[in-house]
Amino acid sequence: MRGLHRLELEELGLSSSEAQVYLALLRSSGGLGASAVANATGIQRTGIYPIFDALLEKGMVERGAGYGSRFTAVAPKQALPSLIAREKEELANRERLAGELADKLESVAEPFDPTAEVEVIQVLRDPRLIAERFERLELEAEQQIEIFCKPPVIGRIDNPAQTRAMRRGIRIRSVYEQSALDDSALEPYLSKWIAAGEEARFYDGELPHKLAVFDRQSVLMPLVAPSGQGSTLFIRHPQLAMSLGMLFDSFWEHAKPFPAGRANQATKATRLRQAAPRKLQLKATRQPSNSQPDILGQKVYSRTKIKTS
């Protein structure tokens, strides 16, 4: 259940580490210091303070006075609606800025020349840029996304953009190699993605390389050199994307369905999520008349499942 709470907090916009720290503070009655939080979460102590700063900015925690003071969690009924309101305000500001900037940039943009050659290949080396490109391609997809998944994963493993894509009706098929099933970092998310609608199979062996094909139009393909160093190719080329899509189809046909235990776990996770609002509603009807109703906020989820070695 704790793992489910963490995933739900991530869907509201917290990182995995922020969600772990908030839950650790929430379970403590008198607050915790940095060392205690590090022990409770397994996060290195040097990384705790940046997480505290992020949670303070989001209104999720409070800090006592003085150096080395304790941190306490803000009550969920206050913190979560405040988090959603803050993000709505930030989104409104970005929309206003985007409108103003679009007008300014329109005057300096060069006219489009349909006869000019367009660069169709880009080499990406920064993991952050690779993760951002994968997320953008997920959000821009119109029909389908096909993925070869090989550990390790780089970037946001929770991949909220994928959830948003599936909610738009995008079909997502993933082939995981055998080692991915044993990856502890992926374990909490696999059942969630399958329950949300991802079509997943596992290949009993090693996949040739990581790959993501978007609408059979564009491709992200990490390439690893013998030295271990690598880069990722972004290729916008329908013919190549179609060929790689046929390669994906071949592996998909030879891959196996996920083990029944994992499928059952996905079904159980879905039922828990569907039952949660009903339980909260029943609980609310049993409260005294002077109690406050439960306040729930929800927000959209993208795994940066594109991963570089």
Give an overview in words:
The chain is α+β, with helices and mostly antiparallel strands and 309 residues long. Helix content is 48%, strand content 16%. It has eleven helices and ten strands. It has helices at 2-11, 16-26, 34-41, 48-57, 76-106, 127-140, 160-167, 178-181, 187-196, 238-254, 260-285; strands at residues 61-63, 71-73, 121-124, 144-149, 171-177, 199-203, 211-214, 218-224, 230-236, 256-257. It has an eight-stranded mixed sheet with strand order 3-9-8-7-4-5-6-10, sandwiched between helices. A two-stranded antiparallel ribbon has the order 1-2. Helix 1 packs across helix 2 and helix 2 (16-26) crosses helix 4 (48-57). The chain is globular. The two termini are 32 Å apart. The model is unreliable at 276-309 (pLDDT under 50).
Helical residue percent? 40-55%
Looking at the structure, what is the overall shape?
A: globular
SS strand fraction:
15-25%
Please give the number of β-strands: 10
Give the structure's gist in a few sentences.
The protein is an alpha+beta fold and 309 residues long.
Keywords:
two-stranded antiparallel sheet; globular; 11 helices; 309 residues; disordered C terminus; eight-stranded mixed sheet; alpha+beta
